[in-house]
Amino acid sequence: MPKDMMQKKKVAYDISFKVYTPEDIQKQQDDLINEVNMILDISKEEAAILLRHFRWNKERLIEDYMDRPRHVLDAAGLAQSSRLPRLEVIPGFVCDICCEDGDGLESFAIKCGHRYCVDCYRHYLSQKIVEEGEAARIQCPADGCSLIIDARSLDILVTSELKERYFQLLNRTYVEDKDTLKWCPAPDCQNAVECAVKKKDLEKVVPTVACACQHRFCFGCNNNDHQPAPCRLVKMWLQKCADDSETANWISANTKECPKCNSTIEKNGGCNHMTCRKCRHEFCWMCMGLWSEHGTSWYNCNRFEEKSGTEARDAQAKSRVSLERYLHYYNRYANHEQSARLDKDIYQKTEKKMVQLQRESGMSWIEVQYLNSASTALQTCRQTLMWTYAFAFYLARNNLTEIFEDNQKDLEMAVEALSEMFEKPVTELADPKLKVVIMDKTAYCNKRRVILLEDTAQNLAEGRWSFSVDLTTPGPNGGSSSRR
């Protein structure tokens, strides 16, 4: 039976899902194969190939097969033949691949009849499975032949190690063929998660799921949990950070924009007379005004109040405000990202601290679990706070924004207070009063996170948020077009 992780919808940001182990996934396939095998009266190997061809849609497979069986078999790469593939030694046989023709040479052919020596067949299958990662659609080696090599034929030819890899790949295709299933992206985790959320709903919901391995990720985009930010917004934010964050601070401090074409310019000499390399516009580095208005004053700006300079400075100020706004949100996003990493390091030391606390205070293992709870709350809340700044960057201001920012501030203050308590030495953590305070603050942090996520998710589902970008229409380079 699958490890049922179904959640009842108690709050707006909850999403229903189930977690399946590799054994669960195999059982699902076996059940479908057995059912098709009985209904259509075909072999299990043929049923498996047909189901993979129809992406495991049993109802559509049976309906199409009943209407036109020959067409379905041909399309799936199956032949109407009762001949069972087996190893054979045929006198006078010459392998078309290696040209071997020795006495006792074993050969093999599937139902199409294209025959090759066993060594060539095994080499071909090994290349397909190991090097190309193919399993569900391995075709006959003959040029132009579309017949699929089934599991029974493969069982005759390959080693047990290769068979194991073959069935692992078949399992992967089962999950990848189903829109409602995804593999858990955590390293070394072999579980799959089922969630019924559709792509068209991703602008109204952030489908966070939790695997049995404790890894939380977004079912929509496979990134780590990024509530409350929708998937498309996350994609745009990560792209912007990759493009801008490393150079934004340097640009802000060391460059200005050309007043005419807005190209970014770095001053590389002492002279204030600047000439834009792109549009050849000449201006003053100090006041941004036309250089022609500066007379013969080549190195000192004495025309600060010229109209052209005022307009240029206004445009420059607007550009800098935009950059500073981005840096405001990015720096806070990056700070929580870094803090989350540091909190994770603390979490790895938590067990050691808990053991020490037991030894020095006489507490039981159960009694020191409050530190584990506090560490988990810190990581979860940091992750949420990190993404609230990406969310806020694209958020258009309205009467809901102040409520969001108040919730954000309350959570941030609670997290910082808990983090400070958590880092106290063991001698202080042994104080029963501090334990109560930490437990209360942990519960408060979790409560404030729920309040923030509930508010943002409810407004997202009801379409009440306004963003500076369109979350539904892809723009150039995979981004989104503006929406006003």
UniProtKB/TrEMBL annotation:
Entry superkingdom: Eukaryota
Listed GO MF terms: ubiquitin protein ligase activity; zinc ion binding
First-level EC class: transferase
Family annotation (InterPro entries): Ariadne (IPR045840), ARIH1-like_UBL (IPR048962), E3_UB_ligase_RBR (IPR031127), IBR_dom (IPR002867), TRIAD_supradom (IPR044066), Znf_C3HC4_RING-type (IPR018957), Znf_RING (IPR001841), Znf_RING/FYVE/PHD (IPR013083)
Gene Ontology terms: biological process: protein ubiquitination
Keywords: Metal-binding, Repeat, Transferase, Ubl conjugation pathway, Zinc, Zinc-finger
Catalytic activity from the UniProt record: [E2 ubiquitin-conjugating enzyme]-S-ubiquitinyl-L-cysteine + [acceptor protein]-L-lysine = [E2 ubiquitin-conjugating enzyme]-L-cysteine + [acceptor protein]-N(6)-ubiquitinyl-L-lysine
CDD domains with a match to the protein in the record: Rcat_RBR_HHARI-like, RING-HC_RBR_HEL2-like
The enzyme's E.C. designation: 2.3.2.31
Stretches assigned to the RING-type domain: 91-305, 95-143
Protein known as: RBR-type E3 ubiquitin transferase
